[in-house]
Amino acid sequence: MRLQRTIKQEVSFEGIGLHTGNHVNVQLKPASRDTGIIFHRIDKNVMIRAHVGEVSDTAFATSLGSNGTRIKTVEHILAAISGLGIDNLVIEMDGSEVPILDGSSTELIALILKGGIAKQGKKRPYLRIVKPVVLEDGHSEIAAFPYEGRKITYRIHFNHHLLGEQRLSIELNEETFIKEVAPARTFGFLKDVEYLRANGLVKGGSLDNAIILGDNGVINKTGLRFKDEFVRHKILDFIGDFSLIGFPVHGHIIANRAGHSTNIKFIKKLLSATDCWEIVSDVEHAQALTYS
Fold this sequence. Notes:
The protein is of the alpha+beta class. The chain has helices at residues 75-83, 106-115, 174-181, 190-198, 229-242, 260-272, and strands at residues 3-7, 11-16, 23-30, 37-41, 46-49, 55-57, 63-66, 69-71, 89-93, 117-123, 126-129, 133-137, 140-145, 150-157, 165-171, 187-189, 211-214, 217-218, 249-256, 277-280.
């Protein structure tokens, strides 16, 4: 069991939101132990904790909300924070959507490492899967199984002749996250862009922050960072969503054609299945946990 972590010093970045297209300034600030991850909308003076109980929307991204105030598209920054094992952090924003940057978590990783990682004088509890939990959600499935460590196996399938099916299994730790998951960018299909924009989405989307697939292949001149970049990005999204449990999870997670909505449904089912997991703390006993 490791010690809790925050960052050593404040760091900041800015950019446009993928869906709103609005420019937002963000500051990451150290936080004391047991704080967790907190979003602070300084333009509204509203604090929103990064927890599944605060999820307000899962359409094309994961959004958090409290008292009518939202933080949109939180999954990439939460994946970076979780992937680096940061437990306590305040994320100050002067707008409603986390900037998309290049569509991956690479720049966020670099930013956090620039701020430095500080160990804190208290152990970090984790959630250990002790019995299988399975969710079937239409064509999507997610399951968690007991496993010594943290492993994710993910399968995607799209009706596109150049994408089709991709599958990847990763032993998750800081090194594998940084090298194998964080660089994978969000993606979409050219045929869907017009529909999404007509519905007020992807106003900030471009070839600089998303992979776009047309009928003849990837439109981006820079090509792909990985041959299977699509499934890797789905794993990135899943890690960000899964961090909303509030604890690192030790187990083997298997996901099939899942998205943000299924991810959140699975988290809620998992947390409700209290006989299927235990919280391992420094006194080595299980504690109750709810998501309400």
